[in-house]
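for the recovery benchmark. tokens below, seq after
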């Protein structure tokens, strides 16, 4: 890859399947890690090869439980203490990103705390995809490569060859994302406005825009319980939409998400493999891999090439 500096790829255990795909696209195998376990549940990851003076890519999404984040932090510390020259932490799904501001008294800002932990452990660069809030990049004092799944999704949408295509945002916060997608696809935009009384529970939802006889694709950064998307699909169809699909980068899919999707009026739900999904729980879920996107950008970073061409939206 580089004339002067070798590179090594390592993965956390729960992101191993995605990391293997990334490594295949990157063109070299994953490095070996030996995990020592203690009887109380404590674990110690040990890198099994020398990384002195090299660039190390550590791949791991930080979805719950918190052990996934802790495992990644320990791996960063191990690489730093093994004298790696550059430690690039590849986080396809950045956990705690919904805690990006203090929106109520005495609340933490979890996304900033995670940024502090990553930097304190020795990360020299962060690579992630579709953060819940773009400003999280500013929580870091090191370079952040913020990639977008749009480069994967736009091609898939075009392959569907839908007439009267309309892009919908399931909330006001996603309006900019929906507008960007629509710009690339030459489509109209509609917005669903929702009111919440508490997290994951929607009180009311209203539609801004016309969807009569339109094939609608709902765009979001993540699907958690899928309550918002399923309710939005119902409203869109009530307002005259011909069909409704949903597309989200991160398939968190907690609680009754799989059942909600399977029983919904959505034709299909498209997500990336940034978070490993449970298989066989819904026939409507389609997974598109983000592995080649990350592998390409990792190669460019290692070769000190510009990655601006990878930022579609």
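predicted aa per position
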């Amino acid at each position: 890859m580089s004339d002067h500096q070798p590179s090594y790829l390592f993965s956390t255990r729960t992101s191993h399947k995605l990391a293997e795909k990334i490594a295949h696209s990157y063109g070299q195998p994953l490095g070996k890690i030996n995990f020592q376990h203690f009887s109380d549940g404590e674990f110690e990851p040990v890198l099994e090869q020398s990384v002195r003076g090299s660039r190390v890519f550590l791949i791991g999404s930080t979805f719950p439980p918190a052990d996934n984040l802790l495992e990644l932090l320990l791996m960063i510390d191990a690489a730093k203490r093994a004298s790696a020259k550059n430690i690039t932490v590849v986080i396809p799904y950045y956990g705690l990103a919904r805690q990006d501001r203090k929106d109520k008294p005495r609340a933490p800002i979890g996304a900033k705390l995670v940024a502090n932990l990553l930097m304190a452990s020795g990360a020299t660069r962060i690579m992630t995809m579709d953060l819940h809030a773009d400003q999280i990049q500013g929580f870091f004092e090191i370079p952040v490569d913020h990639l977008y799944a749009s480069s994967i999704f736009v091609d898939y949408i075009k392959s569907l060859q839908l007439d009267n295509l309309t892009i919908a945002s399931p909330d006001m916060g996603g309006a900019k994302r929906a507008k960007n997608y629509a710009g690339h696809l030459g489509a109209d935009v509609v917005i669903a406005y929702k009111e919440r009384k508490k997290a994951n529970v929607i009180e009311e939802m209203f539609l801004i825009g016309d969807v009569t006889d339109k094939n609608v694709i709902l765009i979001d950064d993540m699907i958690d319980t899928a309550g918002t998307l399923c309710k939005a699909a119902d409203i869109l169809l009530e307002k005259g939409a011909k069909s409704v699909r949903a597309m989200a980068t991160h398939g968190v899919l907690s609680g009754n998400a799989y059942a909600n999707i399977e029983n919904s009026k959505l034709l299909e739900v498209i997500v990336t493999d940034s978070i490993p999904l449970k298989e066989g729980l819904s026939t409507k879920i389609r997974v598109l891999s983000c592995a080649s996107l990350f592998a390409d950008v990792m190669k460019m970073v290692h070769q000190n090439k510009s990655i601006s061409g990878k930022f579609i939206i």
